[in-house]
Amino acid sequence: MSHRVWHKSKLIYSKYRVCRSCFFEQVIVEPVLMKGRRRYRLDEVFRRAMASSRPPKRMQRPRPSTQLHIQRNIVMVEADRFVWQKLRRHFNTDNLTALESSRRQFTTRLLPDLQSVIEELVTLLSPELLGLHQQWEGVPMKLSDLTGSEGLQVVRLTPVQRQDIDIGEDEPYSSLNNGLWLIKIGDDKPAAIMLSKFLTRSGPKVQVEIGHMPDELSHAFAKHFLRAIEAQGKSSRYYRNKAVSFESSGGFGGTQETMRVHKLPAVSRNDVVLSKATMTQLDTHIFDFVECREELKRLGHSGRKGILLHGHPGTGKTHVVHYIVANLPEHTTVLVTAEQMLDMEEYFKLARVLQPCIMVIEDVDLVGRSREDISGQKAETRLNRLLNEMDGLGEDSDILIIMTTNRVNSLEGALAARSGRVDVVLEIPLPDDDCRERLIERYGHALNFQGEALAEAVARSKGGSAAYLKERVRRLAQRSIMGGVSPLVSREDVEVVFSGPEVVLNSLKRQEETVRKHIIEQDDEDDSGCC
User: Fold this and answer.
1) Which carries the bigger pLDDT value, residue 61 or residue 352?
2) Contacts of 49 by beta carbon, 8 Å cutoff, 6+ apart
3) Which contiguous run of DSSP H or E holds residue 307?
4) pLDDT digits over 113-150, tens only?
5) CATH code for position 296
6) pLDDT tens digits, one per residue of 168-227
7) Is residue 274 located within the same domain as residue 418?
8) Which alpha helices (DSSP H) does 129-196 contain, by range?
9) Are 184 and 91 in contact (CB under 8 A)?
10) Could you tell me which residue ranges the AAA+ ATPase domain spans (predicted)?
11) Rounded CA gap, 427 and 406, in Å?
12) What is the distance between the alpha carbons of residues 245 and 259, in angstroms, rounded to a whole number?
């Protein structure tokens, strides 16, 4: 530090005590010192000290801590540390209360879409991007908060903070935590756009706000900007034509998942082994319906449809869902499991945004079981929420709701027996003799069945599901490998592996009933604390 600055600091510290709010809380931008109860700006104290005091007789080198404090505060006077400083300079006024602003709130799951359209709109407007410090995550930041220059709530400038979001592409999307764009509309009309995140009881939200001076050109740009933001929020380019859910994968890649993008298998028609009658029903009620949807709507009919797939465990209901999704590539798929039923309202909002959409609700009996079997308030609330959301879909909605269940008889009648909620009930039956033979050949395509081994396997697997057959064929392959005769499969191998299928099936059914009973009991325990 130069002798001149040291000389002034020596005079100051001999007469004044340091204002703690300046050095430690860092609330006041222009540092002040205190003499008694009066407050002085640092530069004013320098001027008075130099004008009225003589140099001290004995010069001593100041302590390092004192030198550091003075040097830091001199830098603070010269550099912008708070947002209001940037705003005053950008709008060229000390009266920031003259600004006008408009804002919109969206679900944070659309953050990549919102940020991308903002960046596209400001690209040609000489943007300057600033990072913002958010003190409370549960309180949305507003432009009016950024204009304050006094008190504990003054917003500080920070480095721009980003977080990678998995959007199902090769590269994640780099999203902002909080950001402020300073732009120029036309040649000399300043404006500011803020994007911020905050937490609510219903989940995280994103707020977009634009501030500008009260002139005609700025008003017109603000209206155009808000229309573009709302249109992007209703379309979502990043998640369209993908399979998404709200669950987090819990991976270790370090990316944030506002929504999880699922990579579902590509299932062709040849990969689906069902009876001819069942395939005909799928074609009629799903694929033919989608093909005729626009014409049906023109004739005054509904474009939405509810489909219930039911059958024994392991018959391939999920496989059929994958087949439907894979062969309707222009649709976005929203996957809902029983654990996420509390987010049902958000799921239906997302389905409306991503139309045409397929909403898949697996194990719907866990939330849609008969009211006679419901003993808790929470379970009934979830059921009513599901029914209300299904009723809330408009007639012109391009949404297919596909529900699956293993226990169709336990469903609430108001759900399963009412057209408009469930329009079609399709059974995915246990495979017949022809289907079992095709399944065994498909799963055992690398095996060589000798003599009557294949026919024996078909006969012994009667009543078995597709999942049961897949496991038995794997055991046949393992037995042939261990016997050193791979890939040969004899009739004796089939007799050993397929012995007693009914025992295994009954065991699986008992396991399923145990799991469902546990889930229902857990719901009842949760409801015990309800008012």
Assistant:
1) 352
2) 8, 11, 12, 15
3) strand 305-310
4) 999 999 999 998 989 999 999 888 888 889 988 988 77
5) 3.40.50.300
6) 888 889 999 899 999 999 878 999 999 999 888 777 889 999 999 999 999 999 999 999
7) yes
8) 143-146
9) no
10) 303-432
11) 10
12) 6
